[in-house]
Design a protein that fits this description.
Radius of gyration: 21 Å
Largest sheet: 7 strands, mixed
Strand order of the largest sheet: 2-8-7-6-5-3-4
Structural class: alpha/beta
Number of strands: 13
Shape: globular
Helix content: 40-55%
CATH topology of the largest domain: Aspartate Aminotransferase, domain 2
Number of helices: 14
Distance between the termini: 48 Å
Order of helices and strands: HHEHHEHEHEHEHEEEHHHEEHEEEHH
CATH architecture of the largest domain: 3-Layer(aba) Sandwich
Oligomer: single chain
CATH class of the largest domain: Alpha Beta
Number of domains: 2
Length: 398
Amino acid sequence: MPIARAVKDALAGSSLIRKLFEEGSELKKIHGAEKVFDFSIGNPDIDPPPAFHRALNALAAEDEKGSHGYMNNAGFPEVRAALAEKASREQECMIPAENIIMSAGAAGALNVIFKSILNPGDEVIVPKPYFMEYRSYAANHGGKIVEVPTREDFGLDCEKIENALGPKTRAVLINSPHNPTGRVYSKADLAGLGAALNRWGKRTGVYPFLVADEPYREIVYDGVKVPSVLNAYNESMAATSFSKSFSLPGERIGYITVSPLISGAGDVLAALIYATRVLGFVNAPALMQRVVARLTNERAAVDVYAARRAAFKKVLDGASIQYAEPEGAFYLFARVPAPGGDDRAFSDCLKKRLVLGVPGSAFGAPGWIRFAYCVDEKVIAASAEAFKAAAGEWRAKR
């Protein structure tokens, strides 16, 4: 029997990021890992904070009855209470424990949110460029992504978002700090977006949800602060995880924070809990819930990424490759050198020099290429000559 048509179509256009990651694995087998400069995937290579290991070891040694069993689908009450305190500090408003729903990472959180709010044919507006898996997350629940360009500096274009609102708009999805650009949306950006959504709501009687994807919230530079989405607009939710900030992507642990001012809070929370169950997550991993509850006052090792960011900027500067200045996350979004802006062709040119970067087309931004600098600084420094050679070859042939 053939597989589902939708899945077959999705496989045909499978993630460029994953394809490059797999190609990188093969190249390392052929040439040796030290000769391949793989900047394709945002897979943190640093160890989790020492506090994680201490908490994990302590909890693994405990034998408290029920600690590994089912709990309420929303998570352990004491874990939700601990993370509500953390979320209250970050979102600068009081978040009750019942407004925290534990999830299997931020991706799981987004799927739970979309399952809870989307009807077939509903639209989710997303500023472009964006993480292309959002398309699948919306489609999983009958929704459709509507792309809206950002400003030249990759900040939100609130006017264009407002113009894109329509009768099928159910939500606006934003990601800050941003993958792939590293942009952090300013407080003014969020205020402008909140005002646009409020104007639409007053005019139509329908207030779309504002959903923030925030797995990089704790990875920021130069004193930049990630503003509160929940303070910008009442009908908002934030999805986050410990995958990037604490180097725990494989543990699949995150949570949803629901605005205390959201309309119909009881129905929204009940829907999120129901969706967590019926999507097959049932609940977020029990052990990881209890571990992260002990990490609420810990901080990511941002200094490591700051040093890597500086090293990578030096490499690109040396190859005369322009890029967007990243304010957060661990990506450099670089412009394909002139003449010509074929990002896939430039990615292939780099690959010949064993440098792997993801074409911007994978994020809806042709003419750009993304490099993930969550790799050892020595690898970044060693890639300098390969970048220079690839850029030189590119310019010489055009």
